[in-house]
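call fold(seq) -> tokens
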Amino acid sequence: DANNLYPFPDHRNIPHLPFVASSIATSVNLHQLWHNRLGHINNADLDVILQGINGGEKIIPNQRSELCNGCLMGKMPRGKIARFSNNSTSSPLEIVHSDISGPFPVDGIHSRSRYYITFLDQHTRYTVVYLLRRKSEAFLAIKTFIRMVNTLFLDKGFSVKYFQSDNGGEYTSNDCQALFQELGIVHRKIVPYQSEQNGIIERLKRTIMDCAESIRFGANLKQNFWTASVCTAVYLLNRRPHNHLSEHMSPFEAWHNKKPYLMHLRTFGCDA
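ret:
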């Protein structure tokens, strides 16, 4: 007004705090929020998760995830990968697949890494990754992984039986072969140019990078954040339904024999 004062409306017309909070909550597209939190997950898998997410959050009717910038930028079309063809498994650690990705164009923010090595348990589809500065660090990662998982499943009598990889020097080194022999592990090497033998790990690598790049682009972060986005992607993929597991099970549940807790998840790069 003329006195540079702003009149405050009658307090009787101000909604109570619970009403305001409720109004704000219902304006949020929970489907889009959890799409972002779960690494730009597809709608079908997201519906499965939201139906049983601790009974905590409900999907707003008819609200679906919109095609977002993260998905557009992170899930670029790529060449077809051959279907995986291999023997079925009956227990965890029966067959472990591994491969190395990199070098990336820039050092990652974590320890200036340029590579990462992936380990996939075929039976549960559970994935573990280690960041590497150089390929020569791969043997330590292989040894660490095998001893860790053998210890984890010791009481169940499971241990790594077959270790499948390409013929890269990191896997065929004397140290690595000695480790396999010591632990009674059969090293199955991929026949060169027979991509269907390695389809399972190739598909995993693509899935990891699709998720990692989607969340990185969605957060508008520079390329050197690839290490953070890759590690986050693997964490999320282990907790999302997998189409090779029964009853919409996640690799985490198949591996740990319990459902993953998800309510702590936030969108990569922010607090939402």
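Strands lie at 95-101, 115-121, 127-132, 162-165, 186-189.
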